[in-house]
Write a structure and sequence with these properties.
Shape of chain A: globular
Largest sheet of chain A: 7 strands, mixed
Number of helices of chain B: 0
Shape of chain B: globular
Structural class of chain B: mainly beta
Distance between the termini of chain A: 37 Å
Helix content of chain B: under 10%
Oligomer: heterodimer
Strand content of chain A: over 45%
Radius of gyration of chain A: 14 Å
Strand content of chain B: over 45%
Number of strands of chain B: 12
């Protein structure tokens, strides 16, 4: 149980284009999903918190107009990198927290999406 | 404020010898603590979690961690390393931001297991 998928696993795009990454909770409902960014040999940095049916909450320093997040259902959140540039190349990871009352703060992580902007 | 520090960026052990990955935390209240493992090109997998129950927490694959409040530590151990344990390990603390529980990741420790 508690499986989170991401699609695509890898994507290469040209500078200036937009890329959408999907995050799905496959066997549970997730009111809250999170988007992280991981640089090579570095830790995970929380970018934003995505709540179903409401606007995402972005961490300080993260451009909300560049990283558009939509959480349209209890099992799907999307991250769109708009007007991508080479410096946006990174490993993007999503996580989901179960909507169950006793679920606590544990998050289930997706396998990540490797974005390369050329 | 919450924070977590992994004291070693890289640990190398021989197969069959014990593993110790060190983690210290800072929290203004009783924290929830986690250890996650990340294998190359794979997603993060939860090894174990501490949520104010037993201070010695047993996880998957023979790993365990002990919560020591007096030392603000949550070190990860395994009696005997296996080659498949080679991976990146993250110590993580949770904190509350409004009504949302968020996670702070340590810097990560790369575990190398030599034959």
């Amino acid at each position: 149980g508690a499986v989170v998928s991401q699609h695509p696993s890898r994507v290469i795009c040209k500078s200036g284009t937009s890329v959408k990454i999907e995050c799905r909770s496959l066997d549970f409902q997730a009111t809250t999903m999170f988007w992280y960014r991981q640089f090579p040999k570095k830790s995970l940095m929380l970018m934003a918190t995505s709540n179903e049916g409401s606007k995402a909450t972005y961490e300080q320093g993260v451009e909300k107009d560049k990283f558009l997040i939509n959480h349209a259902s209890l099992t799907l959140s999307t991250l769109t990198v708009t007007s991508a540039h080479p410096e946006d190349s990174s490993f993007y990871i999503c996580s989901a927290r179960s909507s169950r009352v006793l679920a606590g703060d544990e998050q289930y992580f997706g396998p990540g999406t490797r974005l390369t902007v050329t | 404020a919450q924070s977590v520090t992994q004291l070693d960026s890289h640990v190398s052990v021989s197969e069959g010898t014990p593993v110790l990955l060190r983690c210290n935390y800072s929290s203004s209240y009783s924290p929830s603590l986690f250890w996650y493992v990340q294998h190359p090109n794979k997603g993060l997998q939860l090894l174990l979690k501490y949520t104010s129950a037993a201070t010695l927490v047993k996880g998957i694959n023979g790993f365990e961690a002990e919560f020591k409040k007096s030392e603000t530590s949550f070190h990860l151990t395994k009696p005997s390393a296996h080659m498949s344990d080679a991976a990146e390990y993250f110590c993580v603390v949770s904190y509350r931001s409004g009504n949302t529980g968020k996670l702070i990741f340590g810097q990560g420790t790369t575990l190398q297991v030599k034959p």
